[in-house]
């Protein structure tokens, strides 16, 4: 695998929150520094990198603060939570990368782009909200929010009630030209945080934020396609993709073709809650003409780029 080109690197949820006990801002900063150390290795090898990231827990924290302060202050709409977290997480990544570059004598600057992602107002997801967000409520509170604020609420696996929002498909990254220009000018870019802020477009092209959540891996794949990235890398909790994961017949995969990925997905090898969306994103990227994708964990990014580990997926 050539060690230069443009790479979109989607860092997973554990790049900021390692576990249930490590959620504070200092904890997140420590985790961000660890993740960016591995990204800096990649940049030092000669890659031009766009970092994308999740923001689920952070959005949850803002929503919870907002709920608790309802009697004091206006609540924060979901699209603004997305924008707030893109800024805060971008700040953590920028600072971590700045210090990595300084330590290594690398003359680079990282910048974050508050990114909007266009979705279709007629996407069927808007009729069937499925993505749980925010904190758990009792049934009474859930029904009250449904009546007062028009929330869609569901009972979540016996743990209480939660709000659910639509998860529409990403169609276009609004700031793609800015991202492309920055990469060409030599910057490291943090973008499409949390899948981007979901916006809909009217007949005149004007944008409006909507209460929805976009799958971050699908949005990252879309960005990789739009800028014709040479590599789409998904950094996650496992070193490689496996068939029959966590079963006695588990089999690690070093390499997969697009056809094999489709087949394994159809056969149900990749669960909806973990590897499924990542494989879907990779399939989408390769179907749109992408050259290669790689899935591994942060500490093995360098070795995976050298072909020593990770799962390589090719057309």
Brief synopsis:
This protein is α/β, with parallel strands linked by helices. The chain has helices spanning 25-44, 56-68, 78-104, 139-149, 176-184, 216-226, 258-266, 275-287, 301-305, and strands at residues 5-11, 47-53, 110-112, 116-119, 131-137, 152-155, 161-165, 170-173, 188-190, 197-201, 207-209, 231-235, 241-243, 251-253, 255-257, 293-296, 311-314.
Detail the topology: elements first, then pairings.
Elements lengths: L4 E7 L13 H20 L2 E7 L2 H13 L9 H27 L5 E3 L3 E4 L11 E7 L1 H11 L2 E4 L5 E5 L4 E4 L2 H9 L3 E3 L6 E5 L5 E3 L6 H11 L4 E5 L5 E3 L7 E3 L1 E3 H9 L8 H13 L5 E4 L4 H5 L5 E4 L1
Neighbour order of strands in the largest sheet: 3-9-2-1-12-16-17-15
Quote the CATH topology of the largest domain: Carbamate kinase
CATH class of the largest domain: Alpha Beta
Number of helices: 9
Please state roughly what percent of the residues sit in beta strands, choosing from under 5%, 5-15%, 15-25%, 25-35%, 35-45% or over 45%: 15-25%
- Please tell me the CATH architecture of the largest domain by its name: 3-Layer(aba) Sandwich
Global Rg: 19 Å
Taken together, the total number of domains comes to 2
What is the string of helix and strand elements?
A: EHEHHEEEHEEEHEEEHEEEEHHEHE
Q: Structural class of the helices, strands and pairings? A: alpha/beta
Mean of the pLDDT scores?
A: 93
Low-confidence stretches: none
